[in-house]
Each structure stands twice: as structure tokens, then as C-alpha cells.
Design a protein that fits this description.
heterodimer; A: 14 strands; B: about 375 residues; abc type-2 transporter like fold; 14 helices
């Protein structure tokens, strides 16, 4: 495995990866480095190529061009060896609804050629707390339990890399929090996790992030780096009757982004001086207050999304 | 006019909206749309033009032990009746073989002394052997034969002064099915029909089900190879097919008294070949179909001509050339000949080859298409 200067070895190291579906260019020149033991967040709007990228990393899809390695194995030619060491959790629950919990785990263990299948499955059930329900059909589980079962089935063969595709979509906050505790435990044990998500709080729990839109990697780094990279200056507008102000604020010179946060509005812009001047002018005859705040990750992402949309339209 | 709307009322515009939505969705679903248009057309073509329960031009071999003008006149008259197509003159052994191989439907034998006995008014025996594995195919032709003798010979035999007596004695042997029981024909045929329906459908659904539910992705993410997935999913259905065959054979034997003249082992070998053809077709359908409904529709598109053009429901030889060509491309057509050959005629390997290779060819063709369309990854 290649070792990046001063860091842990790179588990994922790909460069210039491309993928087309028909005449649609789904992933464009993707380059990605993920270090061992890292929790790497993968963000981007719907249809931006996240799932396709993850599928290429675990050998389900073959890239059209590009090169790179996953766990030190070539992503183009060694996909079958990669599959053995990767746990992939699909976006949609993809275990068998008409098999019981026990049967599902047993089947997956067989697929990976586990030696002591019964021991492995029993342990997984025990850790899940599902030993008493092993004969229940998987399809009858609630969303949160399905997600936990899916994660447990990905972990049966003790993979070194976990690829999780929007694992917490449609799961309640408590289950989500438990899930992330588990992810951090795994990461501490040296397992690398690449996880795609739409949730900001989840993004902030990742060690590093990548933002992809319309097949192109727009930004990557730690949350702070991504936010700093957008060079946004943000003002928070507070006061009564904020409804209907958005449109007017968006038209102000220097305002790149306006977002509502309940009782406040965030106005962001790259040209801080211009924005401050126009905001001061705009608010002079209104009973509102403005204050400078640090831009949030969400501000940065929405700005990224808008930027990529403009680019997409061209 | 009172407007029908409100909580319990009927809203015309709402109703229109639902109807339009249905039309739009129907238009998007190409295969269903194809079925709506295709099924009536196929049915019309098949029932209107292809199917004929009174087949003509049946291939007939002649065993001419006593050639003479009367025999020749009789053969000519047979041909003119349009029910018989004389394929040639053979000896007795060849004639048996032709019947066994299903190459001819009839063998007509003019015994030695036919000419002499006829002139003397001694009513010579004319032996007609019919392949009665399909009783329906032969009944029309045999009915014609009954009148033929008097018509052909009356003008040329002025010495015949007994109008009540027939000039010759027509002796019809219904080979392989002396009592002309339709069960002899239908029950072995059901073997093929049931295997076609269940196996093509089951395998078609088995794969598309995984794809539709998203579990296929999970399967592909494991180290399992396409060969493991394909064969692993097929084998249960081979066993199901064999169980079905055993059930039908048991019923044929003990309920319908259909004889089993050939080798049971050979029959199972032929069945395996046929199962193989159907399973491969099912898998190919499943790799083309996007969901279970499409897989079912494709199965139906295949099953309908198989039922009608294979000779299961209607005599194969009664169909026009184009329909026979379509029928010959279907594995069921050949399987029916093979099964009836083994069960009713006691055919051995040497007689089965003619109808085995078309099934093998079908397997090769479907395999080629299947391998091309099978999606190993999700691309």
C-alpha cells in the first residue's frame, strides 16, 4: 500500500476515474484518497454520481477509464479480490425479505466462504441483540433494524473497508446516533469507512469529506477545510417577519446565497465588503439586526451545489 | 346543471385525470402495449391461417408388391384427393422405419396378387398403416380412403356386377395407437407443455425478482461468480422439472394407460435436454426483462405459439409451410415427436437424432444470446 507522507496508508487511491451510461457522463475524472481508519464522507446532490462511484470502488462496476487501487488491489482488474475484503451496504435494503434473519446472515457468510459459519453468525446475532428473533423474516423488521442487520451482514467477513451508501436514509434520530457510534467504533478498530450521506450532522462526524456534483469532485478535505475553501462570509439576519425577505436579499449586490434557518436568515457572499455594505444599506430602514457568523458546512455545500448547477447549465 | 363534485360526489375531471394517467402509463410500458396489439394479431394469424384440424398433403409411402395399372390408378387417385402426398415407393422394412421416424403419416401396401384378385372380383386387401399417435391428423384422410376404391375402379371393371360388394377390402392399421385414443397423444404432449410453461416462467421470475427487489446488487457485491449464480439458481428448477415429469409419467401409466414402449432412461435424457433449453430461455428472458411482469409477458409470448404451432393442440402437418417453419424453430415441436416416439413407438437413439439436433441448435442460439445479455455487473 502506498503511504502518503506523514499519514496512514491509503486504502483508496484512485485517479481520473470516468464512467458513462450510454451518452451520460456519470462520473468525471474522479480522484480520491482515503486513509486507513478514516471515516470519509461522500456528499453531493441526488444523481451526482455517488452511488456509481461507490459501486466502482467495490468492483460492481468497471470504470471506463482511469486507474487506482482499493486496498492495494487494482480497481480495474482485481475486482473479485476487492469484493472479498470490502463490505458494501446498498442504499436500498438488499437482504432477502423472504429469508429469516438467521438465514440471511448464514447465506452471506457462505457467499464469502467463511470457515466457522455458525460461530460467526451466532456472534453477529448476539452483537445485534437479535438472537431471539433469528427465525423472524427479515422483511418484517422495522427500518432501523433492517439497517442494523444490513450493517452486520456487511461486517460478517471482517472487511477492511466499509462502503456505506446513504446508510441512514429514513432512519430515526436515535437509531442514526447509535449507527454512527458503531461507525466510530469500527474506525477506531482500524476499519476504513466511506459513507455517503445527505445529512449535515453526519457529514460533520466524518474525519474528511468529499463533495461531488454532476460527476465532478468539487471539494475535499476536513469539514473546516471545505468550509474555508468556499471563502464565504456569512451574516445572520434576525428579527420579526423574515418571510418574503429572501427574494430581495438574493438580489443584493454581493449576496451569493440566502438560506432560512427558522428564526434567522443566512446571507453569504464571497465579496464580504460588498455584501456588508449592501446589507447595511438594505437593513437601515428595517427593524432587523445583522451579525457576522462563521459559515456553516451547509452554507458551503449549498454554495457548492449552486456553483455546480450553474456549471451544469452551461 | 348540477356539478357532481364534493366529498362523496363523482368528479368528471378527477375521473378523466385518472383515466389519462392510466393511458400515459400504458403507453410507457412498451411490452404491455405490444401485448395488447400483438396477442390479438398472433391469435388471429394462428387460428385463422395456421391451424387446420383437417390436414391435407400428408406424406405417404407406398409398398408396391404388385405393380399394375389398377394400383397405379389408385395411388394417383389418392394423390388427387389432396389428402395424401406420395413420397415414394419403398420396401416393407423401410416403410416401418419411415413410420417410426415420423417421416410419413401413412404407408399403403399393395399385396402380391392385388391386380389379379381385383380383376377376378375377389376384393383384395389394401393395407393402410397410419401413424395414429395423433388420431386427429389421420381421421380425415382415412374417411376419404373408404370411398376411393369404388370411385377409382368402377369405370374400369365392367365385369363387376355386384354393386353392393366393394372392389377391395380396406384394412386400416392404426399403428402405435390402435384404439385411436386422444390420451395417447395428449398426455405425452402435456409433458412438454407443462415443462415449457413452468420452467421458462420460474427461471424468468427467479432472476428478475432479485433484480426488482435490489437483492441482485447484494449478490453481485459478494465474491460469487456469474457461473455460480446462474447454475446455482437453475438447479432447483431442473429438479422441479424432473418431479413434474415423473408425476406426469406416473399418471400416464396408471391413470391414462398410455403405453411406454421405449427406454425410460432415454426419455429422461431427452427430458433433460428439453429442460435445459427451457431454462436457458427463461434466464435469457430474465436478463432482458426489467421486472417480473415483463418476464411473465415474454413467457406468454413464447408459450402461445409453442402451444398452437408445435403439434400439441392441432396436427402439425395441417399447417401451412410458414407456420411449420415457425413451429420447427420451437423446441416443443421436436420434443413432442421425441416423447411420442419413445413412449408410443419405442424409438431408440438412432431414430431420435433427427429431432434432437434442432433442440441442441436452439440451446446454442439461446445460450449465445443469453451470454451476451447477461449482466455480470450493473453496467
Amino acid at each position: 500500500m502506498k503511504i502518503e507522507k506523514g499519514g496512514a496508508p491509503l486504502v483508496i487511491d484512485v485517479a481520473g476515474i470516468n464512467k458513462h451510461f450510454g451518452d451520460k457522463h456519470v462520473v468525471k475524472d474522479l480522484s480520491l484518497q482515503v486513509r486507513r481508519g478514516e471515516i470519509f464522507g461522500f456528499l453531493g446532490p441526488n444523481g451526482s454520481g455517488k452511488t456509481t462511484s461507490i459501486r466502482m470502488l467495490c468492483g460492481l462496476l468497471t470504470p471506463d477509464s482511469g486507474s487506482g487501487s482499493c486496498l492495494g488491489l487494482d480497481v480495474l482488474t482485481q475486482s473479485s479480490q476487492i469484493k472479498r475484503q470490502v463490505g458494501y451496504m446498498t442504499q436500498k435494503f438488499s437482504l432477502w425479505d423472504d429469508l429469516t434473519i438467521g438465514e440471511n446472515l448464514d447465506f452471506v457468510a457462505r457467499m464469502f466462504g467463511m470457515k466457522k459459519r455458525r460461530v460467526v453468525v451466532d456472534r453477529a446475532l448476539d452483537e445485534l441483540g437479535l438472537t431471539g428473533r433469528r427465525d423472524q423474516l427479515a422483511g418484517t423488521l422495522s427500518g432501523g433494524w433492517k439497517q442494523r442487520l444490513a450493517l452486520a451482514s456487511c461486517l460478517l467477513h471482517e472487511p477492511q473497508l466499509l462502503l456505506l451508501d446513504e446508510p441512514t436514509a429514513g432512519v430515526d434520530p436515535k437509531a442514526r446516533r447509535d449507527f454512527w457510534e458503531e461507525i466510530h467504533r469500527l474506525s477506531a478498530a482500524g476499519i476504513t469507512v466511506l459513507v455517503s450521506t445527505h445529512y449535515m450532522d453526519e457529514a460533520e462526524r466524518c474525519h474528511r469529506l468529499a463533495y461531488i456534483a454532476y460527476g465532478t469532485l468539487m471539494a475535499s478535505g476536513t469539514a473546516a477545510e471545505v468550509v474555508a475553501g468556499q471563502r464565504l462570509q456569512t451574516w445572520e439576519i434576525a428579527g420579526a417577519d423574515l418571510q418574503g425577505l429572501g427574494q430581495a436579499l438574493r438580489a443584493l449586490p454581493g449576496a451569493d446565497l440566502v438560506a432560512s434557518f427558522g428564526a434567522t436568515l443566512h446571507v453569504c457572499g464571497r465579496d464580504g465588503a460588498a455584501l456588508e455594505a449592501s446589507l447595511t444599506d438594505f437593513l437601515s430602514d428595517r427593524p432587523l439586526t445583522m451579525s457576522r457568523v462563521a459559515p456553516s458546512l451547509e452554507d458551503a455545500f449549498i454554495d457548492l451545489m449552486q456553483g455546480s448547477q450553474d456549471q451544469f447549465k452551461e | 346543471m348540477k356539478r357532481f363534485s364534493g366529498f362523496s360526489g363523482f368528479s368528471f375531471s378527477r375521473w378523466l385525470g385518472i383515466m389519462l394517467k392510466e393511458f400515459i402509463q400504458l403507453k410507457r410500458d412498451r411490452l404491455t402495449f405490444g401485448m395488447i396489439v400483438g396477442i390479438p394479431i398472433i391469435q388471429l394469424l394462428l387460428f385463422g391461417f395456421a391451424i387446420n384440424s383437417d390436414p391435407k398433403q400428408l406424406p405417404t409411402a407406398v409398398v408396391m408388391a404388385d405393380p399394375g395399372p389398377f394400383a397405379r390408378a389408385y395411388v394417383a387417385a389418392m394423390q388427387n384427393s389432396d389428402y395424401f402426398r406420395i413420397v415414394g415407393s419403398v420396401d416393407e422394412r423401410q416403410a416401418d422405419d419411415l413410420l417410426d421416424r415420423s417421416e410419413v403419416q401413412f404407408v399403403v401396401t399393395f399385396a402380391p396378387g392385388f391386380h389379379r384378385d381385383l380383376v377376378r372380383g375377389k376384393s383384395p386387401v389394401l393395407l393402410v398403416e397410419a401413424d395414429a399417435t395423433d388420431p386427429m391428423a389421420t381421421s380425415g384422410a382415412i374417411a376419404v380412403l373408404n370411398h376411393l376404391g369404388a370411385e377409382v375402379f368402377a369405370p374400369d371393371l365392367p365385369g363387376l356386377e355386384r354393386p353392393t360388394a366393394a372392389p377391395l377390402e380396406l384394412r386400416v392399421h392404426r399403428r402405435y395407437n390402435p384404439e385411436g385414443l386422444t390420451a395417447y397423444h395428449i398426455v405425452p404432449g402435456l409433458l412438454g407443455v407443462i415443462l415449457t410453461l413452468t420452467l421458462v416462467l420460474m427461471t424468468g421470475l427467479a432472476m428478475t425478482r432479485e433484480r426488482e427487489r435490489g437483492t441482485f446488487e447484494n449478490l453481485l457485491a459478494t465474491p460469487a461468480t456469474p457461473v455460480e449464480v446462474m447454475t446455482g439458481k437453475i438447479v432447483p428448477y431442473i429438479l422441479i422439472g424432473l418431479i413434474q415429469v415423473t408425476l406426469i409419467l406416473a399418471a400416464a401409466r396408471w391413470i391414462f394407460d398410455v403405453p411406454m414402449h421405449g427406454s425410460l432412461l432415454l426419455l429422461y435424457a431427452v427430458v433433460l435436454l428439453f429442460i435445459c433449453a427451457n431454462l436457458l430461455l427463461g434466464i435469457t428472458f430474465s436478463s432482458i426483462a426489467r421486472n417480473q411482469l415483463q418476464a411473465m409477458q415474454m413467457t406468454f409470448f413464447f408459450f402461445l405459439p409453442s402451444m398452437l404451432l408445435s403439434g400439441f393442440m392441432f396436427p402439425f402437418r395441417g399447417m401451412p409451410q410458414w407456420a411449420q417453419m415457425v413451429g420447427n424453430a420451437l423446441p416443443l415441436t421436436h420434443f413432442l415427436v421425441l416423447v411420442r416416439g419413445i413412449m408410443l413407438k419405442g424409438n431408440g437413439i438412432e431414430q431420435l437424432w433427427d429431432h434432437s439436433w434442432p433442440i441442441m441448435l436452439f440451446i446454442a442460439a439461446v445460450l449465445a444470446i443469453g451470454l451476451k445479455t447477461f449482466r455480470k455487473t450493473l453496467d
